[in-house]
Each structure stands twice: as structure tokens, then as C-alpha cells.
Amino acid sequence: MDAMLDTEGKETSATHGAYRRLREMILTGELPPGQKLKIEQLRGLLNTGASPVREALSLLTSDMLVERIDQRGFRAAPVSKCNFEEILLLRCNLEETALRASIANADAAWEDRLVLRHHHMKKASQNGAHDFEDAHKAFHMALLDNSKLPLLLRYCSQLYDLNIRYRYLAAGGSSYKKRDIAAEHHHILDAALDHEADSATKHLIDHYRRTGEYLSSQMDS
Amino acid sequence: MDAMLDTEGKETSATHGAYRRLREMILTGELPPGQKLKIEQLRGLLNTGASPVREALSLLTSDMLVERIDQRGFRAAPVSKCNFEEILLLRCNLEETALRASIANADAAWEDRLVLRHHHMKKASQNGAHDFEDAHKAFHMALLDNSKLPLLLRYCSQLYDLNIRYRYLAAGGSSYKKRDIAAEHHHILDAALDHEADSATKHLIDHYRRTGEYLSSQMDS
DNA sequence: ATGTCAAATAATATCGATATTTTTGGAGAT
DNA sequence: ATCTCCAAAAATATCGATATTATTTGACAT
Prior knowledge:
Two copies of one chain form a homodimer. Chain A contains nine helices and three strands, in the order αβααββαααααα. In chain A, a hairpin with a 5-residue loop joins strand 2 and strand 3. Chain A has a three-stranded antiparallel sheet with strand order 1-3-2. The termini of chain A are far apart. Chain A has about 220 residues and is mostly helical. The first copy, chain A, has helices at about 15-25, 40-45, 50-60, 80-105, 110-125, 130-145, 150-170, 180-195, 195-220; strands at about 35, 65-70, 75. Helix content of chain A is about 65%, strand content about 5%. In chain A, helix 5 (about 110-125) packs antiparallel against helix 8 and helix 6 packs antiparallel against helix 7 (about 150-170). The interface of A and B includes residues 12, 59, 86, 93 and 155 of A. The structure holds a DNA duplex (30 and 30 nucleotides).
């Protein structure tokens, strides 16, 4: 009955709740890169036991958001320009593969999903930045998920998350909106709906390279 | 003092020991795909506590060798022809990227490492299959690691392991030796030493495709 | 016989406590 | 003053026990 007397009964398991919360905190920079993650400290922050915290940290290790130093605990993964550039490189490579495969499998149901996700993203952009982030990721993943390649999708999702972390760290997570992102998304969507693989991948990669250059320039601080 | 009274004092932490052992058992098929991994059962097998076992299983989840079913424990990752083909596809893609980057960074130290690893692999092929496996992986990773792209290397290593799992499952881990693997390795090595990226990647991918076809044909059981 | 529901069983998830290990801080020697 | 080494403190890793949750078993009604 201990697990139920906190604010609400929203999460199923304490581990999963801790995982979600810690992930959020690392992605947004609330837990800064390189910071030591002491079990006791987090135990207090999430008011749960040591076991769920430990297990959540273990899971975050898979996502490369947390580093485990044998016998010396955990810490938030460090960041570097090098690391950022590798993420960008891999995303371009893997997402191109995934998008082309998605288009090769194109069918009406997928196109419907795309249009829907795109619509939701537009709507969410008027709400908070947090809602937009979720919808934005959903749109991008929808572009790729018709590839039916679960491993590849997993990698793309991981790299996506690692990338938005840099966005948050560089600019509080919203300044990139200044550019005309909406138009870029439209280009990608239209090309995908027309099954034009070359054009779609070109727009997608340009989309990433542009944000990449912007962030890279900001990173010499 | 409980952790020290087993056979020897070989491993640093109980978690890491359990991780290594479980990984081995899943890769070799000793723990068959899809098998339920009960904590109690494993606790007995590894004679350690429940916490290290749980944590080891969490870590293996990152490697995609174990699946976590929320609130319902863990099980060895299932296998399928589909999954195998995806692994092959991704390996060809990612290793080509890594190998080209490695060659682009080529220097004498790297060439020395390659030659050495290749030599060790040849020597190890006379020993047990287990030694050869290790040396074989070391050689292949040495081909890639001069890319200086840690994320990419991590993915390649993961996919390598997933792949050898299929090899063990299909043929007990040694029948693939019948083909003239030594010659294939030599082609790759020579091309890499000559910095011929196109040739090296071609030989590498052929190497994988060939084992892939062999395993794929064996998999309709 | 078969399907459904409830009690019994088994397994997981979590907690609190303990043993190890790492880190810190300070006393003594050079 | 600075360095080394040892003791105190803190943090991690691990254990054993308990509370929760899933699964099985068997009785009852159809």
C-alpha cells in the first residue's frame, strides 16, 4: 500500500515510473550531463525505494542516457560536440534506410497514419513545448515505422532522444522553432505521400543537417 | 564474505558475473529463445541473490538478448527468420559505414592492430571454438574501431552478438567453418591494409551475406 | 462435459537492513 | 608546506523478507 499513497495512482510499477521520470529529467537537462546520480538522492526525489531506482538507472543505460561505472555507481551520460556529430551522422544514415523501406512498403493505412500524425503535430504546436515534442517524435517515427524493421526503429528512436537532449541543452528546447520547421515537415510529408523516396530522404536529411548546424554552432560554449 | 566463498574470486561484482554468464548462456542457446527466465531458477543456477540477477537481466535487455514483460518478468529474446534478416541488413549497412570511416582514418598503429588480431584469430582457430569466437569478434571489431565512432561501434557489437546467437542456434556454432572463411578474412584484411575501401567493404559484406544465406537456408525448421 | 469464478500457489516487485567498497579528511613524517 | 597513510564517513552492492501481482487449480453451475 506504500506505492499507492503518493499523488495519484498513475503508473503501474515503481520501476517504470522512476524510469520515465529520470529519462525526462536527463533529456531536458534537469539532471545535467556528467552529474553523479546517487541512489539516496534520487530515492528522495522520486520517493521510492532503492531497488526501483537502481533498475531504472540500469534501463537508462541501454538508452545511453546513463553511464554505469562498475562499483562506483551511475552518472548522467556526458555530452560533447563529437558525440553530437556522431548522433547526427548515424541518424542520417539510419533514418534514410528506414524511410526508404517505409516508402517501399507504402499503403493507404500508412499514409493515413502520416497525415494524422502531421495534423496532430500542427495542433500540438499551439500547446506547450512538451506536447509538441511528443507529437513531433510521433510524426517522425510514423515516417519510419512502415519499414517494419523493429531493431532499426529502436535505434532511430534512441538516437532521436539523444538528439533532442542536445536541443534542450543548447536552447531550452524551443528556440529551434524560429526556423520554418513547419514547411520542412510539409515537404517531407508530401514527398512521402507521393512515394518519392529520393525527395523524401533528401528533405528529411536536410531537416536534420540544418538543426545540426544550428546546434553545432551554439555548442562552442 | 558470502560472495567470496564460491569456487574462486574471479569476478568483481556479482551483477557483472551474472551478466557475463547469462549472456553466454543465451548466446549459445543454453537458454533457448523465448524461455521464461525465472529469478528463483537463475538465482540457483548462478548461486547469487535476486538483486544481481534482476540487474543482469535488465542489462541484457539493452543488448536485446532478453525481453522484459512489465510485471511479468523476463524471458530470453525470441528468434525469427525476419529478425535474422533484419540483423543481417543492419550489419551490412552499419559495418560498411564503420569500415569506410576506419579506412579513412587509417594509420600505422591501426594496421598493426589489424595484423595482430588476424594472427591471433588464426592461432585461436586451432584451439576450442570458444577461443575462436572471441578472436573472430576481436578481429572484426578491430576492422571497425578506427572509425572512432563509439555509438556506431556499440551497435555493430550488439548486432554481431545477435548474429552469432543465430549461428549457435542453427549449427552448434562450428559448422560454418566448413566454408573457406580464412580466405575471406584474408581478402578483407588485405584490402583494409591497402586502404581500398570499396574492395574491403565488398568483401566484408559478401562475407556476411554468404553466412547469412547459409543460416537462412537452415532456418526453415 | 465444459466454461466460469474463487481460492491456493507461485513468481515478481519492492522494501529495509547489512556488508563492501570507495571517498574523504586529518595526523604524522619528511 | 607537502606527501603519505590510516581511520572515519559515505555510497554502492547485495541479501533476506514481505507485499503485490499473475497463474494455476479445482469446485460449482450450466
